[in-house]
Specification:
Number of strands: 7
CATH class: Alpha Beta
CATH superfamily: PAS domain
Structural class: alpha+beta
Helix content: 25-40%
Strand content: 25-35%
Largest sheet: 7 strands, mixed
CATH topology: Beta-Lactamase
Number of domains: 1
């Protein structure tokens, strides 16, 4: 990915919003020798961002996340984020998530079913979702950092950053993480 200045600004806001709302440090240092856009694109965890439209569209998908969903990152840009969710989402859980986002600006520990490009269903777990704000504190989107992808049919998964387990699933850490 060759990020434009606007992309770099958005990604900088994605990182700074994560740190503001969660009170923690983002797992990638944006001040290293590698440009932030490249560091996030090649990060060992899943990372998505969508805009603040009524029907939000993905504006960023890193390599790890896109691969788990069966796409190339560029294929996901402009795609409605709702298409990544598996049917039958628990509405109570969804309401709780949105209340937390409204109240605190983030939600940690999310897990849910997702659907790949080929239609197969899998789980994401140990996910942090947060509001992305511009420098004027206006919400311009939401980010999602996904630490674990779990395929219940294969009873295996991949922890991309940290460890998480769902009942009846074994998480297998990625090499080098």
């Amino acid at each position: 990915m060759q990020a434009t200045a606007a992309d770099e600004q958005f990604l900088s806001q994605l990182v700074s919003s994560y740190e503001t709302f969660t009170g923690g440090r983002f797992p990638i240092d944006g001040h290293g020798a590698v440009p932030l856009g490249r560091a996030l694109q090649e990060a060992p965890f899943g990372l998505f961002a969508h805009n603040a439209d009524a029907d939000p569209l993905f504006v960023f998908a890193n390599n790890a996340a896109a691969a788990e969903f069966g796409y190339q990152p560029a294929e996901m840009i402009g795609m409605p984020s709702r298409l990544s969710a598996a049917p039958g989402i628990d509405q109570e859980e969804r309401s709780r998530l949105f209340r937390a986002l409204d109240e605190a600006g983030y939600f940690a520990g999310y897990q849910g079913r997702r659907v790949r490009k080929d239609g197969s269903v899998f789980w994401i777990a140990d996910v942090t979702i947060w509001n992305i704000e511009d420098t004027g504190h206006r919400r311009i989107g939401q980010g999602a950092l996904i630490r674990s992808f779990i395929d219940p049919l294969r009873r295996s998964g991949r922890s991309t950053y940290g460890a998480a387990q769902l009942a009846h699933s074994q998480v297998i850490p990625m090499a080098g993480v």
